[in-house]
Design brief:
CATH topology of the largest domain: 2-enoyl-CoA Hydratase, Chain A, domain 1
Helix content: 40-55%
Radius of gyration: 19 Å
Number of domains: 2
Structural class: alpha/beta
Keywords: Lyase
Largest sheet: 7 strands, mixed
Pfam family, one: ECH_1
Organism: Agromyces mariniharenae
Order of helices and strands: EEEHEEHHEEHEEHHHEHHHH
Number of helices: 11
Strand order of the largest sheet: 1-2-3-4-6-8-10
CATH class of the largest domain: Alpha Beta
CATH superfamily of the largest domain: 2-enoyl-CoA Hydratase, Chain A, domain 1
Protein name: enoyl-CoA hydratase
CATH architecture of the largest domain: Alpha-Beta Complex
Strand content: 15-25%
Enzyme class: lyase
């Protein structure tokens, strides 16, 4: 297992990236602040995922976790926000959107492993991932209206896609928190686990299962799902048709079909 640490402008170690075989683990490491997202942490998170993109298909999946056991991410760094001008707040919002976009654009699946609080910006980073897995003790919410704010890192965009427009409005307007049962029922969380160890084991098992498939096909499927979300059916269908055509140009498609016909396991090269 290799390890590389990212540091913020103040020297604080905030994001840790570990590679363990085909799995990368990105850890937000500010447990004393419940892993709150400052501008520097968001910048490090974006940089970490942009760097990981260069390692695909060697990296077949990423786990995004929070250190400390109390929170995945409890939200944005409110104390650091108190002195921001409106223009500086817009810059912070753009930085949050860039971090979420880097997670969403990675051509390999990303699983948010939530253990504890995923509130505000924390939920927004989790929503940028492909899947949210969580422990039974986890709590979710977009409480920004309680501060006279709205979600600023993509919550108004991605939460409706995850749980539907009506439920997203109810959660954002009320600012209330929900537990694991409601998160599962709404489709926000894909799977729940009793504790952190089981959560990480389950997420690794999912990445290992995905890794048996063509990395080119998985990456293409992810791109289509992201690009087609919210588009009219005709537009979304055209995106899928174009990607299906592209798949026929890949070596992985040729290998996958050949392996099926020859009744053997495929040897995908990611090309």
């Amino acid at each position: 297992m290799s390890d590389a640490a990212a540091t913020g402008g103040d020297g604080e170690r905030a994001v840790r990236v570990e590679r363990d075989g085909k799995v990368a683990i990105v850890t937000i490491d500010r447990p004393a602040a419940l892993n709150a997202l400052s501008a520097s942490v968001l910048g490090e998170l974006e940089a970490a995922f942009l760097a990981l993109a260069d390692d695909v298909p060697a990296i077949r999946g990423v786990l995004l976790v929070g250190e400390g056991g109390r929170a995945f991410v409890a939200g944005a760094d409110i104390r650091a926000m108190t002195s921001l001008s409106p223009e500086e707040a817009a810059a912070l919002s753009r930085r949050g959107h860039r971090a979420a976009a880097a997670i969403e654009a990675l051509p390999a699946p990303v699983i948010a492993c939530v253990d504890g609080y995923a509130l505000g910006g924390g939920l927004e980073m989790a929503l940028a991932c492909d899947l949210i897995y969580a422990t039974d003790a986890s709590t979710f919410g977009q409480p920004e209206v309680k501060l006279g704010l709205i979600p600023g890192f993509g919550g108004t965009v991605r939460l409706p896609r995850a749980v539907g427009l009506a439920r997203a409005k109810e959660l954002i307007y009320s600012g209330r928190r929900i537990g694991i049962d409601e998160a599962l029922d709404s489709g926000l969380v894909a799977r729940s686990f009793t504790d952190r160890a089981a959560l990480l084991d389950g997420a690794r098992a999912t990445v290992e299962l995905i890794a048996t498939n063509s990395p080119t096909a998985v990456g293409t499927a992810k791109r289509v799902l992201v690009e087609a979300a919210g588009r009219p059916t005709e537009v979304a269908s055209d995106i899928e048709v174009g990607a299906f055509e592209d798949a026929f140009r890949t070596e992985d498609m040729q290998e996958g079909v050949a392996a099926f016909l020859e009744k053997r396991e495929p040897r995908f090269g990611g090309a």
